[in-house]
Amino acid sequence: MLIKGKNWRPVIAVIVLLMLSCKSNKVTIPKGIEPPDTLVNLLTDVHVLQAMTIVEGTPNLKPNTSDDILTSVCRKHHITVADYKKTLGFYSSHIELLDSVYVRVLDTLSKRKAELRGKTQP
């Protein structure tokens, strides 16, 4: 059955809408936001330093210890704390992207743990 006259226009419109709805949901990282690789490194270092602080059982933890850790990590990676917070805010609003970053953070931490265990075992 062929569609004659103007009856084909709604069919074409539906096809076009379906094609547009199937487009990629890839998120573009805007200027001023750190790329995923950098955020993985930042978050890994933040979590390692936080864990070291807890494990060492420092009895005189200051309330601003987290701020000190964050400042130290940002300095190491040559970004400002404001840029870190802006970056984390962006990724937090794109949860799939943040999830993929944290998968890599956990993988990196697991590899470091395995390396440390290998060095301490005879």
Topology overview:
Elements: H1 8-21, H2 36-55, H3 65-76, H4 81-92, H5 95-120
Helix pairs in contact: 2-3, 2-5
Count, helices: 5
Cα-based radius of gyration, to the nearest Å: 24 Å
Number of domains: 1
Please write the string of helix (H) and strand (E) elements: HHHHH
What number is the mean pLDDT? 81
Number of strands: 0
In percent terms, what proportion of residues is strand?
under 5%
* Cα shape: extended
Poorly predicted runs of 5 or more residues: none
Structural class comes to mainly alpha
Q: What is the makeup of the main sheet?
A: none
Ends: how far apart?
78 Å
Share of helical residues:
55-70%
List keywords for this structure.
single chain; 122 residues; mainly alpha; 5 helices
How would you explain this protein's 3D organization?
The chain is mostly helical and 122 residues long. It has one domain. It is built from five helices and no strands. It has helices spanning 8-21, 36-55, 65-76, 81-92, 95-120. The model has no long low-confidence stretch (mean pLDDT 81).
Give a nutshell description of this structure:
With 122 residues, the protein is mostly helical. It has helices at 8-21, 36-55, 65-76, 81-92, 95-120.
